[in-house]
Amino acid sequence: MTDTLTETNPETLIAELGARARAASNRLAQMDSAAKAAALRSAARALRAAEAEILEANAEDMKAAEARGLSGALLDRLKLDPKRFEGMVAGVEAIAGLDDPVGGVISEDKRPNGLVLRRVRVPIGVIGIIYESRPNVTADAGALCVMSGNAAVLRGGSEAVHSNRAIREAMAEGLEAAGVPGDAVQLVPTQDRAAVGAMLKADGVIDLIVPRGGKSLVARVQQDARVPVLAHLDGMNHTYVDAKADPAMAKEIAVNAKMRRTGICGAMETLLIDSKFADPKPILSALVEAGCALRGDADAQALDAHVEPATDEDWDTEYLDAVLAVKRVDGVDGAMEHIARHSSHHTDAIVTEDAATAEKFLNGVDSAIVMWNASSQFADGGEFGLGAEIGISTGRLHARGPVALEGLTTYKWIVHGTGQTRP
Questions:
Q1: Which of 26, 62, 69, 274 has the fewest Cβ atoms nearer than 10 Å?
Q2: CATH number, domain at 293?
Q3: Under DSSP, is residue 14 helix (H, G, I), strand (E, B) or coil?
Q4: pLDDT tens-digit map of 185-223
Q5: Domains in the chain: how many in total?
Q6: What SS3 state is found at 210?
Q7: The pTM is what?
Q8: Do both 105 and 153 map to the same domain?
């Protein structure tokens, strides 16, 4: 299939992939939950059987990425080791164990004329996912689409081309062994950027585009798409340490939120500290000891000699690296004002022992995820009990926050009558 498709122009290529995906999604829509779950467990077995080949392919990608001078954050996103590989496969199995939203009744009403109306969840159809760096997205997105009755057309980044191909090939083999068309999870077989443009204009071929990547990718998708887009913007995430925060908790959360994995979208990028918080120095010292570079306002610089002066740009930068902006603010109102100006509406957190202050923050901050006394690194579909995620939506329509099975469905009205006619 790949050889034939790579010889066509981008529009023809995407049209053919889309037609195959549409046929597969029609098959999936007729399958029950048990059959889809069995197919995903079969895909997980096929992935484990291909572990050596997949890790070898990833090593090839890593070598090429290092030669190209990719940043440490991007290399971390790209890397698969045995532990991450097992986590990826376990994620596929976890999705197989989740409740299938398809067929679920959202609402039911009986009209005075006797008509019974139900809103029932149905698959969206063909989902196009455009993503960068992280090869685990190939497995996560493919599995989520299959379980929700959709077919996936995946376009990964060039830096992960060998990893993505190996993962997709194993998944397709496992799906086919269980009676699901391999075309349910397809990978665009070219790195030609024109293929992305063709996906964005494939209205009627692709039903929904999900971009997962940096600002430039998401901006291009939103600007050029003729297909509905589920936006996953950058993670300009804040943690606010309130005057009444527990000092030990605040230090532990701040270090974890920034340094557990700096290259993920849930990483903290700005630390806000109440000017009345009595013990800020140990937080900054712990971050420095963990290897984090700090950039702050004058008040933050006065706390620790390691804090370099921040520029206006720092408050709007998603570093995805061991760099953190630090600012002192006047209470929760000052924190919320700063977040309103600089947040990407992804994930913002407060650390405090004052419940009233926490509620004010949770209700007043307009982000897809708001947290109280927890690390922003929990902004992840797996941690939310969703098995995995296809992305974190920062928009306000359809789905918001981690998008998993339910977010990949729409609904239709089913009307039962007994011969009613409209007067």
A1: 69
A2: 3.40.309.10
A3: helix
A4: 999 999 898 999 999 999 999 999 999 877 778 888 888
A5: 2
A6: strand
A7: 0.83
A8: yes
